[in-house]
């Protein structure tokens, strides 16, 4: 009897040690995965400098691109793609700010928007001078931005997908939707994308950038598995800015 009683604590101890080892390995694997992310290029970092047209401010949670002059009435909250540094979108977002829009990119925990899908809420509260908010996101960021927009439809006047699609049903959304992707995008699952179009309002707008790929919405180099773009990053982003500003202008006139 005494030997059996001694074995029981020993077995429990072994199980606990085994669980601890599994947890440590899982945590290590996750942090390795999360820290293997796409970083902003030199051009993107240079775009983070304020000048006479745009003032850029940065906190632990977000980067704000504010057009100089009168306070803008319209703003865009941007969710970055999965495992992409927020700073990588500086050239694109700076160009939008130069079109008199307040633009704020959220900094996501571990560079994954799934860990803070409601990041837009705090931004809206802080930037209370903006009357009309658009939610936008690239890839995984677009999926999570659509989740927030669906839950806070009374706070959002428009939703913009860049190489992305909704995770939930938006067929009855009270706001317009713009979807942009590149013809050479080989990261975006076309099967999932096509299926998700049934979750969008009937009058959503789709724009295909001829020659564009997945990664050139940002400035972080070539993304693994992506197609080869036949237009430059600058060209893809210029076309994206034109599409977004036109979408917002048309929404204003309706």
How big is the Rg?
22 Å
Mind describing the biggest β-sheet?
Answer: 8 strands, mixed
Helix-strand topology string:
HHEEEHEHEHEEHEH
Strand content: 15-25%
Separation of the first and last Cα atoms: 84 Å
Strand order of the largest sheet: 1-2-4-3-5-6-7-8
Task: Report low-confidence residues grouped into runs of 5 or more.
Answer: 25-30
Count the strands? Answer: 8
> Which class do the helix and strand fractions yield?
alpha/beta
**Rounded average pLDDT:** 90
Estimate the helix proportion, in percent: 25-40%
Shape: globular
Tally of helical runs: 7
Identify the notable features of this structure and list them briefly.
single chain; 254 residues; alpha/beta; 8 strands; 37% helix
Tell me what you see in this structure:
With 254 residues, this protein is of the alpha/beta class. The chain is 37% helix and 18% strand. The chain contains 7 helices and 8 strands, in the order H-H-E-E-E-H-E-H-E-H-E-E-H-E-H. An 8-stranded mixed sheet has the order 1-2-4-3-5-6-7-8, with helices on both faces. Strand 3, helix 3 and strand 4 form a beta-alpha-beta unit. The longest helix has 34 residues. About 2% of the residues have low confidence.
Question: Which SSEs are present, and which pair or pack?
Answer:
Blueprint: H1 2-35, H2 42-46, E1 54-58, E2 62-67, E3 74-79, H3 90-97, E4 102-106, H4 119-126, E5 132-138, H5 140-151, E6 158-162, E7 177-182, H6 190-196, E8 205-209, H7 233-253
Parallel strand pairs: 3-4, 3-5, 5-6, 6-7, 7-8
Antiparallel strand pairs: 1-2, 2-4
């Amino acid at each position: 009897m005494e030997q059996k009683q001694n074995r029981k604590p020993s077995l429990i101890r072994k199980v606990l040690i085994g669980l601890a080892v599994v947890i440590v390995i899982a945590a290590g694997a996750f942090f390795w995965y999360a820290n293997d992310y796409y970083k902003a290029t030199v051009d993107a970092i240079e775009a983070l400098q304020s000048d006479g047209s745009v003032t850029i401010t940065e906190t632990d949670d977000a980067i704000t691109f504010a057009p100089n002059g009168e306070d803008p009435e319209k703003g865009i909250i941007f969710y970055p793609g999965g495992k992409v540094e927020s700073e990588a979108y500086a050239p694109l977002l700076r160009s939008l700010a130069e079109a008199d829009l307040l633009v704020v990119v959220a900094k996501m925990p571990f560079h994954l928007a799934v860990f803070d899908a409601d990041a837009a809420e705090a931004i809206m509260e802080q930037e209370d001078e903006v009357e009309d908010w658009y939610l936008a996101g690239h890839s995984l960021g677009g999926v999570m931005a659509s989740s927030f927009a669906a839950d806070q439809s009374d706070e959002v006047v428009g939703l913009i997908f860049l190489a992305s699609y909704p995770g939930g049903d938006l067929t009855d959304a009270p706001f317009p939707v713009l979807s942009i992707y590149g013809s050479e995008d080989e990261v975006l699952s076309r099967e999932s994308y096509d299926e998700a179009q049934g979750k969008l309002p009937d009058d959503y707008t789709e724009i295909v950038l001829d020659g564009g790929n997945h990664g050139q919405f940002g400035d972080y180099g070539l993304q693994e598995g992506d197609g080869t773009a036949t237009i430059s990053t600058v060209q893809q982003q210029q076309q994206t800015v034109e599409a977004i500003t036109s979408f917002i202008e048309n929404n204003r006139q309706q």
